[in-house]
Amino acid sequence: MKRFVIVLAAVLLLCCGFQQTASADGPYHFGFKKSKNGQLPSINEEGFKGVLQKNDAIFLGDTARKELFLTFDNGYENGFTPKILDVLKEKKVPAIFFLTGHYVKDKPELVTRMVTEGHLIGNHSWSHPDMTQISNMQLKEELEKVKQAVTDTTRQQAMAFVRPPRGIFNDRTLALSRSEGYVSVFWSVAYKDWDVNDQKGADYAYRQVMAQLHPGAVILLHSISRDNTEALGRIIDGARQQGYEFKSLDTLKVKTY
Length: 257
What we know:
Elements: H1 2-24, E1 28-29, H2 49-54, E2 67-74, H3 81-91, E3 96-99, H4 101-106, H5 108-116, E4 120-123, H6 136-154, E5 161-162, E6 168-169, H7 171-179, E7 183-184, H8 202-210, E8 217-222, H9 226-241, E9 245-247
Parallel strand pairs: 2-3, 2-8, 2-9, 3-4, 5-7
Antiparallel strand pairs: 1-6
Helix pairs in contact: 3-9, 6-7, 8-9
């Protein structure tokens, strides 16, 4: 009996060791402590800060400069992107659009317009999978198919940035993306804007974004949101009134964690 207990204890310790090894590499779901009253956002308590630093990923930019980086996730088109592009053109604001394969196939004219009007195209994967649950070969295929489809559509050759679908990642996926030539991009300003059945109006969107502004902010907006579309012009104007300047993500030089 004593021998059985010892063996059982050893097995349990071994299992716990396997669990710790597995969990040490995630998967992580990106989250952060939001900026409030001008204080900087934080990922100090999230458990993955070192993983982002190790893989040179972007959380936020230079917190000594009043610069903002506007990013949109485009999984599918909900009729609002043309208006978003109109506002960006009118306000002379650069942005980056993270596109899925579905979006590139379904809306080539909008993808072409993004490039023509000077915006960056980022990789959001071909089929929006949990990257931590697919093999290295599958992950490479997910990224390459989007890049090739954008090249075929717009003749744009370079694609430097990737955003993991749903913000799920681990060290392996960030490292592999980096080896494929990508910088992984997360965010430091966001709110629940992706639920098309829970839109709360442009005023709500405006307040949510403006309350979180901080130097070096990487702003995440979903293009399927009516609220974002209707509030975008006011957000840009309001940020500029506070002395902020909107910059293209490829000009971000200093990464802050």
